[in-house]
């Protein structure tokens, strides 16, 4: 319950660009492994998961906040107080990233999408680990735009309508031409 409360606390004051996302800074345990034989009492349990870093939050600060809450949870439980959880950070660690507020790339991209027949795109944030963070950290203005439904991305029903691919290609072409001074 302590980690669920921690997760709920981290959702407070989430960036409004996340829209109606319930857990933009989610915490989920996706893998649990215990013991080495079906009929033996396990001597250890390993749990691995995902922990969302808030927009603008340094990874070290996010990790410290998680570690502090985990220590409180362990201290409040008799067995865990005597056998505290050992936390390690392995695998992918993804910083947040975003386009600087007021950067002209956003309205330029939106205008290109609209002029390419893609409607009026709205600025929003997504809870995902992407390479945008690498460009943002290097000071390169970056945003995500593309065809398809993000709710279907990386899943068994992933699909992208060809008409949306064509619209995105036109939008990128317009943005490129306009960025080079061609009107």
TrEMBL record:
Family matches, as InterPro entries: Peptidase_M20, Peptidase_M20A
TM segment ranges: none
GO molecular function: acetylornithine deacetylase activity
Group of enzyme by EC: hydrolase
Alphabetical list of Gene3D superfamilies matching this protein: 3.30.70.360, Zn peptidases
The entry's keywords: Hydrolase
Domain of life: Bacteria
SUPFAM superfamilies: Zn-dependent exopeptidases (SSF53187)
Pfam families per UniProt: Peptidase_M20 (PF01546)
Keyword Cell inner membrane appears in the UniProt entry: no
Enzyme Commission no: 3.5.1.16
Name the record gives this protein: Acetylornithine deacetylase
Species of origin: uncultured Blastococcus sp
Taxonomic placement: Bacteria, Bacillati, Actinomycetota, Actinomycetes, Geodermatophilales
């Amino acid at each position: 319950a302590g980690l669920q409360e921690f997760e709920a606390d981290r959702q407070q004051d989430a960036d409004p660009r996340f829209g109606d996302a319930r857990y933009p800074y989610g915490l989920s345990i996706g893998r649990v492994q215990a013991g080495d034989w079906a009929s033996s009492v396990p001597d250890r349990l390993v749990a691995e998961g995902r922990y969302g870093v808030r927009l603008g939050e340094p990874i070290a600060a996010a990790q410290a906040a998680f570690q502090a809450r985990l220590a409180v949870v362990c201290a409040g439980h008799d067995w865990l107080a005597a056998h505290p959880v050992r936390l390690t950070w392995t695998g992918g660690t993804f910083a947040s990233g975003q386009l600087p507020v007021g950067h002209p790339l956003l309205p330029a991209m939106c205008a290109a999408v609209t002029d390419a027949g893609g409607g009026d795109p709205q600025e929003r944030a997504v809870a995902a680990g992407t390479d945008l963070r690498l460009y943002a950290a290097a000071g390169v203005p970056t945003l995500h735009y593309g065809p398809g439904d993000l709710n279907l991305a990386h899943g068994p029903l992933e699909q992208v309508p060809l008409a949306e691919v064509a619209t995105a290609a036109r939008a990128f072409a317009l943005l490129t031409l306009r960025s080079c001074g061609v009107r």
